[in-house]
Each structure stands twice: as C-alpha cells, then as structure tokens.
Amino acid sequence: MAHDGPPPSPLLPEPPIRPNPAARSTRVDRISFAVDTPVPRRGSRADSDRLAASQKELSDDDARLVYINDPVRTNERFEFAGNSIRTAKYSILTFLPRNLFEQFHRVAYVYFLVIAILNQLPQLAVFGRGASVLPLAFVLLVTAVKDAYEDWRRHRSDRNENGRTASVLAAGGRQFQPMRWKDIRVGEIIKIAANETIPCDMVLLSTSDSTGVAYVQTINLDGESNLKTRYAKQETLSKSVDKEGFAGLIRCERPNRNIYGFHANMEIDRKKVSLGPSNIVLRGCELKNTAWAVGVVVYAGRETKVMLNSSGAPSKRSRLETHMNRETLLLSGLLLALCLVVCVLAGIWLGNHKDDLDYSPYFRKRNFSSDDEKDYNYYGIGMQIFFTFLMSVIVFQIMIPISLYISMELVRLGQAYFMTRDASLYDEASNSRFQCRALNINEDLGQIKYIFSDKTGTLTENKMEFQCASIQGVDYSGGKASSPRDWEAYSVVGNQFWRPKLLVKTDPELVRLLRSGGESRERMHAREFFLALAACNTIVPLTVGTPDPKQKLIDYQGESPDEVALVYAAAAYGFVLVERTSGHIVIDVLGERLRFDVLGLHEFDSDRKRMSVIIGCPDKRVKLFVKGADSSMFGVIDRSINLDIIRATETHLHAYSSLGLRTLVIGMRELSSAEFNDWQSAYEKASTALMGRGSLLRAVAANVECNLHVLGASGIEDKLQRGVPEAIESLRQAGIKVWVLTGDKQETAISIGYSCKLLTSEMTQIIINNHSKDSCRKSLEDAIAMTNKLAAISPGAQNTLTGTGSQRVPLALIIDGTSLVYILETELEEELFKAATVCDVVLCCRVAPLQKAGIVALIKNRTDDMTLAIGDGANDVSMIQMADVGVGISGQEGRQAVMASDFAMGQFRFLVPLLLVHGHWNYQRMAYMILYNFYRNAVFVFMLFWYVLYTAFSLTTAITEWSSVLYSVIYTALPTIVVGILDKDLSRKTLLKYPQLYGSGQREERYNLKLFILTMMDTVWQSLAIFFIPFLAYRHSTIDGSSLGDLWTLAVVILVNIHLAMDVFRWNWITHASIWGCIVATAICVIIIDSIPVLPGYWAIYDVMGTGLFWLLLLGIAVAGMVPRFAMKAFTEYFFPSDIQIAREQEKFGNLDEAAASEIPMSTFSQPHQGCQNYKILFDPESSRKTLTTGFVQRFVESYMGFSLEMAYQRVLLACGLLSDLTKLLKERLYFAHLV
Amino acid sequence: MIITSFALVGLVFVPIGLASLSASEQVVEIVDRYDIDCIPEQFQNERLAYIQNSETNKTCTRNLIVPRKMNSPVYVYYQLDNFYQNHRRYVKSRSDKQLRSKAYEQVTDNCKPEDKANGLAIVPCGLIAWSLFNDTYKFSLDSKVLEVNKKNIAWKSDQDHKFGSDVYPKNFQSGALIGGAKLNASIPLSEQEDLIVWMRTAALPTFRKLYGKIEVDLELNDKITVVIQNNYNTYGFGGKKKLVLSTTTWIGGKNDFLGVAYLTVGGMCLFLAICFVLLYVFKPRTLGDPSYLSWNRNAAGHPS
C-alpha cells in the first residue's frame, strides 16, 4: 500500500478496511480506491454491486450462511459456486460461434464481411467466391487458431488447478482425506500444511500455533512478498476438529473483490464472534512458517476474491491510432469519390451507347437464348449505376487498409518483445523485467509531454531508514553506523546472540543516555520513546538462522516500510522486538527480556492518520502508545503540559521535513484502571458489534487517543532512487514536463524536489497553500499575474522548457491538497491550468489519490498533449488509469499500481530509455508504418482505377483476382511488419545523448495531415507511373489482359517494396530477406497462378517475361515512380535537415563504431546485458571461430555471399534465439492473460 | 551519394532510351484503316444495314505501298479500335473448362448470354468466341499471291494445354444472332488458331491481333494489293478496323514511347544530378554538424 499518503501513514498495514459510509462520502480512502478502480474497466454493474456490498453492514438478507462442516446444509438453499474454476472461454461446442461473435466486434471485420457478402450476389460478383472470402477467412482463421491455442492452455491450466489435492474433513467424519480442489464445497473444513497453496477463501479455525496465528504469503494475490499474519479466533482455537467435530454458523458478506476486506460473524456454542479480514486466508496465498492451519471454506471457485479480481489488461487506444482513424475517414471519402466517379462515368457511357448495347459484341444486352429475348443481366441505367457503385466498392475495398490493424498488432507485439528484452530496462535489484501490459499504446511512449510522478517508491526507493529522533525536545541526529560489536550487549538467548538483520545508524549520545544508569527524566523518556517504537506496530519478528550457530538474525516483516524502519531503529538502540503473538509481545529491553500484553490495538486509518496500542506492562501499568502524522497528533496532545517541549518538537519536525525526512510523532498516556475498564468494555462491545463495527471502533479509538503527552518525533529517510536527478534532467531536456504529485508534506516534497534537481535555487517558487476558495482564487490570480510579468521581462520565454539556457527566471508552482480541494472541479481549474502550464515545475503535496487523477485530467482534458503517470502504490492507481500512459513501478508497495498500469518496470530512471529510445523508435516506426500502409494500398487502388477508365467503366481488373486478394496479405505485408519492428532511425546512444530529439514525437512530425497528403500525392504519381508507362508502351499492340496484369502486379509490388527499402534506416538480414523475399514471393505466386490452365491468364507471365520490353518497363516504372520522392527526400534532407537527420549524419560520419553497431539488428545484443551473456558468448567472433570449420567453405561463403561464415552462423543462432524468446514471451503473455 | 545515384540512373537510362528509339525506328509499319472505305458509296449512310445484310458483296480491295524494305517475317495484324475486349461482361463470358476438355462440354454457366442455342450447349460458348473476328485478307504482290502463313500465330501453351484437341466446335453460331466467324466443326479447338488468338482477350480497348505472317521480304515501293472480306461488324458500336503490316525488333513493334520515356527520365535524373551539384557548391552544409541542431541554432528551440 502506498505510504506516500500523509507522511506518518506507516502504521497499520491494512488501511481502513472497516466500512465507514460516512467517511467514504467525503473522501476516498486508499484501499477502497485501489479496489474499486478496476470496476469501470470491466464495466459490469454486478461488480460495483458486489463492491458496494462490502461497504454495507451485514444484514441477514444479503449474507451468505455457511454451516461449518456441513456442506450439504450450506448448499441446500442456495447452491454456492463449487471450487472448480474455469478461466477458459470456450468449450468445443461453443468455440466457433462465440469466437466468431467476438471477432466480429471489430468494425474492420464487419466491413470485410459486408464486402464479401456483396460479392456473393451474382450481379456484383467481381471476384470469384473463393477469392473474395479468402482474406477474411484467413484473418479469422489465424485469430481463431490463436484464440483456440490460448484457450487450450487455459483449459489445461484449469485442469491442473482443479486437479490439485487438499485434505478435507470428510463430511461429518473425523478424518482428513485428500480431495481434489474442484470437489471442495463451501462449508467444508480443510487442513493446509506449511508451504501449501490455499485452495479457496476460508476462515481460519485453528492453527499449529497455540495463539492461533498463521502466516501467509500473498505474493500471488497482490505481489507483496512479506508475510502477513492471520488469526484464528480464540473461540475456535481450542476445538480439535478431527476429534470432536465442529458445528457452527458463519454469516458472511456476499462474494466481493475487495481483497483487503472481509466482514462476517460466526455463531459458535451459541456465542457470536465477529470476523474480519485478519481471520480469512484467501485462495492463491501460501501458508508459511506455520505447520498447519485448519479453516472452513466460505468462498470457493469463481467466487473467491482472487478470481473476482482477475481483470483483463487495460484497453486504451493510442494517439496515433486515433489520428489514423481520421485519415481512414479521409480515405473512405476518397474511396467513395472514386466509386462515384466510376459509377457516374459508367452511367454516361451507358447513356451514350444505349442504342448499341443490344448487339454490341462486348456487351450484348439482349439475350437470344431465352425465347422472349429479354435483357441479359441488365436492369436499366439506374440500377446499372447502382451496381457499378457497389462493384467499385468491392474492387477498391483495400483502399481502407484492413490488414493494417493486424500488422499493427504484430508490430506492437514485436516492439513489446524488444522492450521487454532490453537490458537497460531490467532492474537487477528486484530482478524485474520490463512488462508491457497494454499492447496497443507502444507508440504513445514517443509523444509524452507531461509526466506525473508519484514520489515515494517512484522517485525514492521506499527503503526507509531511521535518521534522527527528537525526544523530549532534544534532537538526536548525530547518527553513525553502529558496528556489529555493539550488538553483543543485547539479545542473548541462552548462548545465542540474536541480532536484527539490518544495522541502523545510532546516535552515540543517545546510546550513552540509554545505557547510563540512574533514573533521570531524560532516560525515562528515551526508554518510553523506544518502547513505543518497538511496541506500537504490527511487525512480526522472524528468526533466521545464520551459518554461525551462535548467531541468529531477526528479520522484521511488516507491511509498512516505515514501521519496519522504526522497529529496526528501536532494536539498534537496544529495544529488540523478539516475539509477537496475538496476545503479547516480547521485547528485549537493553538485554532484559520483558513480556508486554497487547490489550488492544487500533489500526491505522487514513482519517485518524494514527494508530495506537494499549500495552499491559510487566509492572501492571497500562500504557497507551500512539504514533501518527504531526497534523493529527498535535490535535490530541495535551498542550497544557510542557508546551516548551511541544514547541521544540514542532521545530524539529519542521527541520526534519525540510531535510526530506518523513516524520512521525509519538505520544503516550498512562491509563488508570478506571479508564482502562471503560475502554475495554467499549472496545469489546464495538469489536463484536454486528452493525457499524468500523465506526464504533473508530469512535472507541478517538475516545481513548486524547490528552497524550508527547514523547518525541522520528525522522525517516527515504532515499532517492539511483539516477533520478539525471533522469529528470534528461526528460526535461526532451521537452517533457515533470510534475510530482505526492502525499507528503510540503517541506518534504520541496526538499525532495531539490535533491532530485526538479527544483533549483534560481527558481521562483509560487506556493499556493490556502484554506478557502476565495483565497485560492486570489493566489492563482497573483500567480498568473506574476508569470505574465516575468514573461514580459524576457520575450520568447514560452519555450524555455525545451531550450537549454533559459532566459527568464524559471518558475515552480507548489500547491497542496487542501487548496486543490477548492480548485479541482470548480471554475478555478482553468486558472490553475493557466498558472501551472507556464510554470516549469509543478509540485503537488498532500494530495489524495483522486486529486492525483484530477490533476492528470486537468491537463488531459484541456490540451492535446500526451500524459504519462508513473507510480508504485495503490494511491497512484487512479492517476495511472487516468493518464494516457500509465507506468507502474514494481517496487515495495505491492502490485496494485502494476496491475493497473500499461507498462511496468523497476526504476524511475528507466523512463529515460523507455521514452527517449523505445518511445521514439516505436512512434517513428508506427507512424511510418501507418503512412506506408495507406500508401501501399492506395497505390494499388489507384492503379486499378486508372485501368477501370479504359474498360468502359466496367470494373475489370487486369490483375488476377488472386493477386488482388493476396496483394495486401502476402505480397507486401511482411516487410512493413519487419521494418515496423526492427527499423531504428537513430541509435540508442544518440537518442540518449540528445534528449531533444524526442521532440519529433511530441510535435507529431512523423505523422500528420500534411505528410498524409504528401504521401497521397506521391501515391497518385506512382500509380500513374505504374499504369501509364506500360499502357503507353503497349498501346496498339497485341498485349493481352493477363500479361499486362502480371506486369502491373509485379511493378506495383516492386515499387512499393523499393519505396519501403528507400526509407529503411538500418538494414539487417531480416529486413533484406523480407523485402526482397516479398518481391520473389510475388513473382513465384504470379508464376504459379499463371501455370493453372483453367485460368484465362495461363502462361501469360512466361510469355511476357520473354520480351525485353517487359524488363525495360519494370525498370522504367521503378525509376520513374521513385524519382520525385527520392529527389524530394534528398533535397529536404540536405537543405532542410531535421534534427534527426543531422543526428543520423553525425552517427554515420562522426562515429564509426556506431555505424558498425547498426550491423547487429537488435539493440539487446549490442548492449551489455546480464541476461544476455550467453548470447554474447555465442556471438563473440573469437569463440565462434574456434568452433567453426575454416578453409574452403568459409572462403567460399565469404567471397560469394558477401558475409562471413561466422556471421551466417550467428544469424542462424540469432534467429533461433529470437524464435525461442518470442515463444517465451507469448507463453508469458498467455499465462498472464490467464492469471489476470 | 545522391548525385551519384542520379547520375548513374541518367547514364544508364539515356543509352537505353536511344537504343530503344533506334530499334523503334527500324520497325517498318503499314497501317491501313479500311472500315469506312470498304463500304460502297451508296451504303455509306446505312453502314449497319450493309454489314448486317448477308447478301451484299463485302469484298473490298486495298492497295498498300511499302515505305521501306520490310524483312521477313512481316507480321499481319488486324487492329480494332474502341472494341472493349476488356469489358467485364465480355471477359467473363467464356468457359475455360469447356475449351480444355470434352468432358466439360456442358459447363457453360459463365457463358451467358451465349451459353446455349436451341437448348444445346454451344462449344465454344460465350461472348468472346461468339464475336470471333471474321474479316479475311488476301495479299498479292504484282498479281502474285503473297502467302500468309496462319500457322503458329497462337501461343503454343494455349494450343497445348488450354484448348483441347478433343474438343470440336458444336452448335456454334447457330443462334438467333450471328456474332462473327463460324468454325469448321471438324477441326479441334487446339487447331483453331484464329479462335485461340481471339480468345486471349486484349488488355486495352484498342488492340491488335495477329492474323498471320508473310514470310518473304517486301521491298521499298512494293505495291501490295489486299482483298478484304469486310464481314466484321464494328459499325454497331463505332469501332474502327485497321490492317497492319509490321516488322519487329527486340522491343516488339513500333514503339517510340519507351525510348522517349527513358530519355526523359534519364535526362531528368542528369538534370537533378547537376542541380544537386550546383546546390552543394553554392549552399554547402557540413553533414552531421551538431551546430545545425535546432536547439543549438536557436535557443528557443522548436515552437511547441
């Protein structure tokens, strides 16, 4: 969970799980936000209903009744879902209809289908039936096979999953017997052994631990690897299930997807016991550190929380694709225009010839073979025009490039593959690779203008380190790393030393104070302070053996890194938490083991922003320890005593947060026995309440957490991630605005801003920190006035962002969450937008998750600029989903952010290669590919169109129908895909060296209306060349339609492929193979088609190939078609070079080894990479030379094939590696799709 | 690099252009349009009636002067203008299966409206076969008959594989409307070369079809007399008929376009090469000079 929230959030792991309708109406708290955001994505009402269910109190009506150990009765009234799961979509019977139905959700396919159906009408049959259905059938088949394979895998994994066994208490029996997972029913009792996976959601009844504690690892559920504690209720603990049997009734809420919430009660021995999320273990978790656990099944199969939480990857549409749709519309218009021209001309022609048509040998309207001499296939000019129109739609259909959609998907898959494989996006620390979760927005990465970044865990490591403490108004911050020797004094158990796993800096003075004898007030307070740190948490100490049998390590496991840091700190000062059960904790206080009873614990919630424990000390005194955010703590501190200390503490807090530390205030109070008794009865009443338990508990907590006296404050450092300042600098140079949105305090945020170079000392800061709407308005107006004034001083300042030397004073806007409450979603938004966009840096602090999304929306809705949100915690989910591109950091805080994101990676600094390198490449390639696909289809259509003008507008195609159909599928499809995956305009090194090059994507230089129109003009020219050169040459000759058609087919394919070849930046063998291979494949196809004697064009290609004219024409077409484009390109590249062009020249002429690097096709192999070392060895010429035969063969290959045998060998290996990696990636994706 | 490629293309294209122009020059071609002139004066106003009337004498004599020496073989073509042999209705109206093998004699589905006559399947069926060209030419030089070899005028591949040797014309031109030539029912289709030539439909609305070859050299100023049986009706749709005698070279028949096109493209490339040379000289730019990068040239960078 996000600890980014209010700085002193650390406390309890499980945020506010307790339902609290009142609180929800005012703000969205962290967890429920994380959980309900996926809802809109699935878009199902049922889900939101289910979710809502967890917020309401349980009423009997919508509760689920589970009779423990009586599955028959449990399932009597309502049949609850069994435990068999089914992630597979289809069965053998339903596959065909369902799959087809799903596929035809794509408009493109419907278009395809309509055309194919039109073509089946005899009057319109332009193509033969087979040929017209083929492309659609092909695409459908490929997709269906892919789906079927995926589904088969799902079936198989379902089978595996359902076939696992668990030991289940035989109904009514006394013995646990193995049973398959799929046969488990709600109400049954299951026993889980250590390290086993839990088969369904169950309520714990008893565990091997005498206090009923069980530890589970939820890594499959939320990705958190630390252990979580779950408890069996005292009431059920004592029962020995297999001896005396078990009977009881659990009334629990309906299945819902909130994995952090559970709400139920249990009636056992006529006693009502309440159950909460800590009493349930969920399917998919693993039992750890616990010998066994017994529980009763409450949700099974598809109703388990993990299954309910599975949702597909987010579906977004990329900017480029949206723009592409605009051009697609233009092309539809063009198509329509062509069809209209044809049908109008056909109508005129028919009108002019209407008298001739009866007998005209090539038309023969009159049908003499029927007796009444009716017209043959002629329905009057009007109908004829209409039919011509429909037929021309069929003939010109590929003007709309349908194959483009499939190509784009393949290209994105390939791009994703290379991004995933990229070594520079691999995080060694967490062993996490880059993940492409959304496959359809790769190219958006090249157009980002705004980055919204979370702070904690994103800019920082989220590895908390205790730095300093203020105790009783005295600051102890002179920490130094303690040497291991210091430990010998404490934590001796028998003859074993127990020491914490991590060492923390300690302040020598404070250590001396703690160790000194005597009972000075300072010492007392310091003791209490560290006792509070050690006790007031939910950390579980685990002892781990070391090679030295005399030494054991204590590993603190907890869900909040802040808490872990505090406990380690306490341990370093000699307050070692050694044991925790549900009822007590054992703390080694300066070498003396003391047992404290945990009498009560008020969990952290984001409204109170604090947590507290009530501890029964060994000396029978009862103490309340509270820790929390300063804002919430100072409200409950008794200001009447020791005001000086409070003031001093406040000063220290301010100082700490200015250093960028996360602060917490610790307070305590001793409870008198009367107070304690009051509290206890209230606490018990509240925790067994059936209605409104959450709010009751909160009230109890609020009652007791008062009149505290302050013990002190702590400062925890959250270190910046490696490379963050450099990354931010690069991004800024690339013209990307980085906004930081954090839940931290303003001071902390500003200091982090300085340390990551977001803020600089010459910046003018505009701070908006208000508590009312009017003052907000005023501040905003002032801010705008100020920016205007500054802009007036230095003209042309608008663009300082992208420039290097800024000419005006840079501005930073710092705004806090309270002010945003008054600004977002009011008319002030506009003002904020104006102010924020002129500022170079925007820092929002103390913002709630929804506000983060609101700020993203502020930019997204008002500009066309692309936004990217990056974060790691559940509190970032909303903004990740709101932004055009969401990036999740797979860090310390679970996987909520990753699950919501489009891309996931390990470190913030990876944004630089991701955006500047991959984003640039992806955008550049995809943009080119789209234009190219438009071009290649249009050139074909225009060529057909020119011919139609010479066939009395009757829509004959000289090109065989098979070639027409295969044109976009086989003849020209592969090269564009290969180029879309592999081509690189610039090397990684150059792109990183000049971040400014990223601007080309932001300015949409590679794909815009102007380029589209230019391309279309070129298209028309090329189609003219293709058509008219042979036309004029063969005019008045004996040329037959098929021969000329074959010539046109070859000419268009060659031209289109040369066009592509001319634009390829980096050649490698795959590109060569695909481009030239395609031309060869076309020739082969044409030859095959012309070798079928029943087709009219039999032998035409052989005949025409035998003439010199044919070859001269091909050459002439290729050159004449390319000359304008080539000249234009050469001219602009030389005289109006773009930045990219200059950089490319620099690469080419300035640095020879870069040029050499381009020989190797894949970036992954040119980069040093851990995971790639095997490859590197394989591709090392030195080592491969030894393994290869030398001599004649090698010389032969070298001299005749142009490359060395090693290279050939390497290429084969490369291809094999590629293939296996690609299958792996596919598998992973399938697995992922299955999981999610 | 740019200059070299342009210059290279220019240097390759100009000679090719010149070569093909000269080849085209060598071709001697006699084109004689006869469709109007071959109709007697009195029928000029009712050409259609004249051509449709089977009674009238359609013999017509034309004299051709050989402008340059024509080396054998001299190809004899007929050229039809404005005849849409590539019309959709027309090109589809054939049955390749039927042409190929006797077994498929009844397959006439595509041949409408010329699929059956008198209830029986027509072989060869379809509009294409039905409209077979039926003008004939007889050549004589100085009242000596010039033999026209009508063998091997069709593609060998068509004769061998496309037109069956066991398929004989049947029920052909027996319908209500006669379209063109009749076929000798005793000769298999594979030997009916005029039909085979005709059925390889032309790509363009103006086309030539090989009629035969004259296998003697024709000398300058030879006066050739052609006796034409002017049977074929192009008057109904405003078509033209031409008789063509032509020699060939490696680029085929007379074809100035290719040479002109090559010269144009080549010339343009040379011109562009020179332009680029001039531009490089007068407006040089160091390639890959980082000072040209937009953000170095102008601190404000690109307008965003």
Describe this structure in words.
Chain A: It catalyses: ATP + H2O + phospholipidSide 1 = ADP + phosphate + phospholipidSide 2. Chain A: Residues 898-1138 form the P-type ATPase C-terminal domain. Chain A: It is a multi-pass membrane protein. Chain A: Its cofactor is Mg(2+). Chain A: Residues 165-245 form the P-type ATPase A domain. The complex is a heterodimer of chains A (1236) and B (304). Chain A is elongated and about 120 Å long. In chain A, helix 15 (403-421) runs parallel beside helix 33, helix 20 packs parallel to helix 24 and helix 21 (673-688) runs antiparallel to helix 22 (693-704). Chain A has 47 helices and 37 strands. Helix content of chain A is 49%, strand content 17%. In chain A, strands 14-37-36-35-15-31-34-33-32 form a 9-stranded mixed β-sheet, sandwiched between helices. With 1236 residues, chain A is α+β, with helices and mostly antiparallel strands. With 304 residues, chain B is an alpha+beta fold. Chain B contains 9 helices and 11 strands. Chain B has helices spanning 2-26, 47-52, 88-91, 96-100, 127-130, 156-162, 193-199, 256-282, 294-297; strands at 29-33, 59-65, 74-81, 116-117, 120-121, 136-141, 144-146, 148-149, 207-214, 223-229, 240-246. A 5-stranded antiparallel β-sheet of chain B has the order 1-11-3-9-8. Chain B has a 4-stranded antiparallel β-sheet with strand order 2-10-6-7, with no helix packed on it. The radius of gyration of chain B is 28 Å and the shape is extended. The model of chain B is unreliable at 299-304 (pLDDT under 50). The interface between A and B is large, with 88 and 88 residues.
